[in-house]
Amino acid sequence: MKDTTTLYQHGTLALLVPGLLAGTLTMAELLRHGDTGIGTGEGLDGELIILDGHPYQVNAQGEVHEVAGDFTLPFANSHYADYQPLMTVLGASQADLNQQIRALAQLDNAFFSVKITGLFTAIRTRAVAKSEPPYQTLAQAAQQQQIFSRGEVEGTLIGYYAPQLYDGIAVAGFHKHFLAADHSFGGHLLDFESVTGEVAVQPFSTLAQHLPIADAAYRQHDFSGDDIVGDVRRAEH
Amino acid sequence: MKDTTTLYQHGTLALLVPGLLAGTLTMAELLRHGDTGIGTGEGLDGELIILDGHPYQVNAQGEVHEVAGDFTLPFANSHYADYQPLMTVLGASQADLNQQIRALAQLDNAFFSVKITGLFTAIRTRAVAKSEPPYQTLAQAAQQQQIFSRGEVEGTLIGYYAPQLYDGIAVAGFHKHFLAADHSFGGHLLDFESVTGEVAVQPFSTLAQHLPIADAAYRQHDFSGDDIVGDVRRAEH
Questions:
Q1: Which of A31, A111, A147, B151 has the fewest other C-beta atoms within 10 Å?
Q2: Do residues A57 and A71 lie in contact, with contact meaning Cβ atoms separated by under 8 Å?
Q3: Taking CB atoms and an 8 Å cutoff, what residues of chain A touch B211?
Q4: Is residue A128 a contact partner of residue A144, using CB atoms and an 8 Å limit?
């Protein structure tokens, strides 16, 4: 039976900060821990979103492709979907939506996922272009991100919420990726004006935090000089 | 087959800080995730150490008893032992030992466990007395700890190392509990002068972080006013 109470995470946001961007997990392995998720490829190669077991990549040209099992990732989340309906929203702003989800779900101190399907207006996403070794830092890579926008688009948003205590391990608060229903648009969600659709949530009792401990660069890195929380905040929000 | 690459953790050090001390996991459940571990009971009821599947409690009187499956805990770690020999030490100081383990194991960015069996000199441990609801904060409870010492004692030390990024979630660096071979002494390790014996380590690729999300006090607590890292450092080191 599939475990729907565990959120799997490979890597940390912190390891992206100094540019530990080697792909240390395959998509095939990530999919052994869930059918739904988000992530990024080796060298920050685009923005990934997994829906119903299908892993889609939005690359720096804004194109959406399904990736193969041997695609590798430095950071990703996955879980087995078992979302429960939370509410229907009609033209909700992003700030109102976040506030309503937190007020209704009462899960501020838990990990949970949110899935929103519907019509989004004035939506902006970004995707980072793949860098090659020696890898750039997260701050440098984020400067070369491409931003995409749509006036109106139907699609699915997958987000993960992490409690404040886990800032730097994950993105504290919400970390959201988006995919258009027709696969013509997607990426890491920057913002939107309004959404009309269905909001569902899935709480987790366990975070399975997997670390790339066989990777020499990760093992040997001294994180004490990195501004983990500051750089994550600037790059991911 | 038992998973020897995962460290299970119930709760966080952070939740002890404001006194969220309800026992939210039974020992029976903790033992489903390992045969080796450390923890504390409801209300900070003593110091727990699990060896070969047997959970021992050192209470505030310094007595050692095996606890039953329905004993509950607000915070604990467990894993299935698969230690690999690292080194033999002869009269090593605690500081030298920590430094040698880190230099040899090269696991600064991983979770790992250390097991040391041997003869310890001038060793000091502590145990906290159980508090009842409304629970004290960690800082208040730590003031009422009892300290125990022995000039020389044979026994086993079980420690867990957490990377700096996880400070407040776990104890960053080492968190060690001790049990004398004859069960006459033990507790949370404060310090020792020297140890002669065998040192073994077990690295983990995954931290399974379980949170008490069904507990109303945990769900509703606002952690933003707590000095998590400061209070954990003062209480646990």
A1: B151
A2: yes
A3: 109-111, 205-207
A4: yes
Residue type, A195: V
Is the distance from CB of A217 to CB of A16 less than 8 angstroms?
no
CATH class in words for A6-236: alpha beta
Compute chain A's Rg from CA coordinates: 17
C-beta atoms of A206 and B209 within 8 A: yes
Pick from A144, A110, A105: nearest CA to A127: A144
pLDDT in tens, chain B (237 residues): 799 999 999 999 999 999 999 999 999 999 999 999 999 999 999 999 999 999 999 999 999 999 999 999 999 999 999 999 999 999 999 999 999 999 999 999 999 999 999 999 999 999 999 999 999 999 998 888 999 999 999 999 999 999 999 999 999 999 999 999 999 999 999 999 999 999 999 999 999 999 999 999 999 999 999 998 888 888 876
- B182 to chain A, closest Cα gap in Å: 36
Chain A residues within 8 Å of chain B (Cβ atoms): 6, 12, 14, 106-111, 163-166, 168-169, 203-211, 213-214, 218-224, 228
Q: How far apart are CA B196 and CA B228, in angstroms?
A: 35
Cβ neighbours of residue A200 closer than 8 Å, sequence gap 6 or more = A83, A84, A85, A86, A114, A115, A116
Instruction: Test B109 with A210 for CB contact under 8 angstroms.
Output: no
Nearest CA distance, B183 vs chain A (angstrom) = 34
Is residue A36 a contact partner of residue A50, using CB atoms and an 8 Å limit? yes
d(CA A83, CA B229): 34
Contact B156, B89 (CB under 8 A): no
Q: How far is CA A201 from CA A105, A158, B197, B205, in A?
A: 8, 10, 51, 28
Instruction: Check if the beta carbon of residue B21 is closer than 8 Å to that of residue B43.
Output: yes
Phi and psi torsions of A225, nearest 5° = -95, 0
Locate the domains of chain A by residue range. 6-236
